[in-house]
Amino acid sequence: MKYLLMYNPNSGKRKFKRKLNKVIKYFKERQLHLDIYESQKPFDLEEEAKRVGQDYDVIIVSGGDGSINEVVNGLMCLDKRPALGIIPAGTANDIAGILRIRKNIKKALNIIVNKEPVYIDVNKINDRYFLYTTAAGVLTKISYDVPRKKVKSLGYMAYIGEGAKDLFKNYNIEMKVTHENGVVEGEYMLAIGLSGRRVGGMTLTKFSNPKLDDGKFELRLIPHTKAFRLYRLLSFVLNRGRKSKKDVALVSSFYKIETRDDVVWNTDGEKGVKGSVLINVEKRALKIFTSKRSKKEYFDQ
Fold it and tell me: pTM for the complete prediction?
C-alpha cells in the first residue's frame, strides 16, 4: 500500500506542521510507505492530486474543508482514484465532523490504516465538485469573506461575529428550481443544499435524514420575508434546521437553478461559481474512510 499525505500548512492555526513527525513515526513503526506533499499556493493540492493521485492507494488530506475540496476536485479527474483519508486541521472541519473523525492524529490514522473505505457520493455544481454543501444567500459568504488574519486570531468566533452582521442584510433572490419531481419558483433569502447534517460548525439534527451514498442531494429553500426575517433565520439555526411551513424541502439527483448572474454559491465552505447552476450527484464516485458511527448513520453499505 502506498500512502500520500497532502497538507495545507496554513489550515487552522498552523498547528499540524508541528505534529508532522507523529504521522511519520506512525507509518515507520508499521513499515508502511508514506510520501508527503506540502501545499505551496491556492489550488496546489488539486493540481498535485490530479498529477500523481493514481500512483497511490490512499491519499490523506490534513487541512480544512477547503483543502479537502481541492483534493476531491483533483481526484475526480482521474480514471483510477485512490481512497481518501482525512486528518482534520481546519477551523470548522465540517466534512470530518460528518464522518465523525476527530482531530486526534493517532485515532484518525487508525481509521485510515485499519478500516475499509466506503463509497461516497460526489456532487457537481457546473464544472466544480463538492462533498457536502452548496448554498447561496444569507450567512453563506462568511466562511470565505472573513479575513484570514481574524480567523487565525479568533478561530471559530470570527465566523460567529460576521454571521451576526449578515443576519441584518436583506437578501432577496429570485430562483426557478427544476428537479426530478417538478419545478418551484419564488424569492428566497437562503438556498442551502446538504449531504449531511453539519454546516458552518453547526449540527442541524432536524434538517433532514440524509445519506452519503444514495445518489440524492437535499435542498432547502427559505422564502424571503420582510416581517420577522431575523426571527425566521434565528429560528432555523436554533431549531437545528427544522423545516417551517413555508420552507421548500427538495430531494433530487439533480437541480437546474436559474437565478441572477451576481448570486454567489458557497461550495464546501469556499467561494464557488456565480449565477445559474446545474447540480448533479455522481453516486458512489469516491472511496473514503469514515468512523463506524458515521458509516451506520450515513451509509447503506
Answer: 0.89
